[in-house]
């Protein structure tokens, strides 16, 4: 058996300011750093073999704080490092080192024209219901942005083709990512319907555990 841990990054500076963030690469707030450190304490004795994160700094900071508490050196393996044969060989990793794969497949939903806008201002301008549809429905796209379905369609192939094989090889995996990319992953794992997905909210910096056994992922209680 192996396991999967999903963690949404700690509060970012734009979460704090209540602004749509999407692919804008803002860092954690002071509270977000504390949330990530609290999460690290919770995970301190949990054995992690391989880590996945997005290309965005708030998720990467969260992951690195978690690994630091375990006294692990996370080493980013960049796909572009063609000359860097060393990092292509996981056997070269020391006991206290773990590989980190970062991919834009795990990025937050692209929020299009809403990025940077204050969420309350958007509700005042477009109405509460419309903003809720943009933020939480499965199919509705925010202006020039991605619907959750679009996010799902880039996140889930990566999850199935790159992340799941690690668990098939008996590795314990952590994924540090974002509210909507993780809502996609949870929708897939837990088979949540399009109608029910708007109800799923993820707290910042709170790990979710799944066990992987006989090819099946199950929520660990
Ligand atoms: O602004 C964003 O990028 C996301 C996550 O913080 O917002 P929401 O929860 O509204 O989808």
UniProtKB/TrEMBL annotation:
UniProt-recorded Gene Ontology molecular function terms: phosphoglycerate mutase activity
InterPro entries: His_Pase_superF_clade-1, His_PPase_superfam, PG/BPGM_mutase_AS, Phosphogly_mut1
Pathway recorded for this protein: Carbohydrate degradation; glycolysis; pyruvate from D-glyceraldehyde 3-phosphate: step 3/5
GO biological process: gluconeogenesis; glycolytic process
Keyword Isomerase included in the entry's annotation: yes
UniProt key word Hydrolase: no
Signal peptide: none
Marked site: Transition state stabilizer: 178
Pfam families: His_Phos_1
Record-listed E.C. numbers: 5.4.2.11
Key words, A-Z: Gluconeogenesis, Glycolysis, Isomerase
Family assignment from sequence similarity: Belongs to the phosphoglycerate mutase family. BPG-dependent PGAM subfamily.
Task performed by this protein: Catalyzes the interconversion of 2-phosphoglycerate and 3-phosphoglycerate.
Full protein name: 2,3-bisphosphoglycerate-dependent phosphoglycerate mutase
Gene coding for it: gpmA
